[in-house]
Amino acid sequence: MNETETDASRILFINSADTQINSIDRSRTTDYTFIPEESIVIPRHHAILLSLHHTQIPYSFYNFQNNRNNRLDFSLSAVGANGSLGIQTGFITLPEANYNAASLITAIKTLLEGNAAWIAVNGGTINIIFNRDTLKYEWNYRRAVTTYSRLTLRLSSGNNALTNCRAEIGLNDNKWIDGDATQDIWFEDNGTTQKGGNSNTAGGNTTLFTATPNNRDAYWNGSDGDNNRFSCVDVLASIRSLYVRTNLTTTSVLDSSVGGGFSSILARVPIEVGSGGIITISPSDGSVHKLLLKIKEISRIDVRLTDQKNRVIDLNGLDWDISLQFDFIEIKELNVPKDKRLEIEQTKYNSWKNKTLKE
Asked: What kind of fold does domain 9-61+239-330 have according to CATH?
């Protein structure tokens, strides 16, 4: 078994400004390679415990980023029509930013109603409010002409299905009442009542949400008139943690996002400051979780700063620094005594074998 770690530790300070950026975009300082002048060589009878000793990360990244979660496809169609086959389609692109609940509503409404495809067919009015008690967005669509009575947000059938903001606006894909996470969401105004539901893009089936919450997180509230709104799941899908990943830790941490297999995560960095602040892990709480490394020589260190889905964070050109702590432990060789019974049986077998060969 391993002996107690030695008292001495080796600390490696790395600032992203001193590294080789791996992205074509030279401002992407969160994906880099650092090559030390001298390799760290571990003797055969030693191993390394690695931990994140310290880090300082400027909170300059956006919760809504290009090519990640800032596009939204929509479709305008007739009553009962499958939204993916809508008469009029288009998409909006949210500017990169850190929105609050109110400013995000304004941005979505302004972009939708100002979209050229929306204006071309007199697409009506979209109303969104944020319920501070339930922490949900509530949606309401009012048609302007009967031809376009249904608004569909094409969360799965749109061209931007992988980069839309469904989770951030409260339409999490694991909250549908029928358990189908591959469906679009629609709101409909037929002139007398309103409905809300999700559309199976393959067969055109529509499933209304329950009339009451019924222990569900997504539901149609069932009221009439101007207050007839579709209430969505909690709006809590912004980035809450950052992850420091390295090429040294590929056999040390298990991650549910890869099916419970090994990942490259070195440490999780909780975000406990507001936008514009400095996210810090100090030596007092840094080297808590230590990882045992199997490698015997460290000649390069690859570092990535990502979100939970392993997407690289963009600090908008700002540099950041981390400190890696290496603790050395001695591996004690175990002398396992031979099994005497096995030795006796082996002697008997050899004796029988030799006797048989002579005969």
From this structure: Jelly Rolls (2.60.120)
Rg (CA), the chain: 29
Along the chain (359 residues), what's the average pLDDT of each consecutive run of 10 residues? Answer: 56 94 92 91 84 93 91 91 74 94 94 96 90 82 90 89 88 59 75 72 39 42 53 75 90 73 85 90 70 87 92 94 89 61 69 64
Report the alpha-carbon distance of residue 111 to residue 90 in Å, rounded: 11
End-to-end CA distance of the chain: 49
DSSP letter at 6 equals P
Burial annotation 203-227 (CB, 10 A radius, 16+ → b, else e): eeebeebeeeeeeebbbbbeeeeee
The C-alpha angle 217, 239, 252, rounded to 5 degrees, equals: 105
CA distance 187 to 182: 17
- By residue count, the chain amounts to 359
- Per-domain boundaries in the chain: 9-61+239-330, 71-234
Give the CA-trace dihedral at 19, 24, 25, 30, to 10 degrees: -40
Q: How far apart are CA 42 and CA 10, in angstroms?
A: 12
What CA–CA distance (Å, rounded) separates 112 from 92? 7
Contact 217, 176 (CB under 8 A): no
CA distances in angstroms from 290 to 141, 216, 286, 303, 305, listed in the order given: 53, 40, 10, 17, 19
pTM for the whole thing? 0.75
CB 296 within 8 A of CB 42: yes
Is residue 225 a contact partner of residue 194, using CB atoms and an 8 Å limit?
Answer: no
For residue 217 the two structure tokens come to 């997180």
Phi, psi of 356, deg, nearest 5? -65, -40
DSSP code at position 352: H
Tokens representing 255 are 């991650």
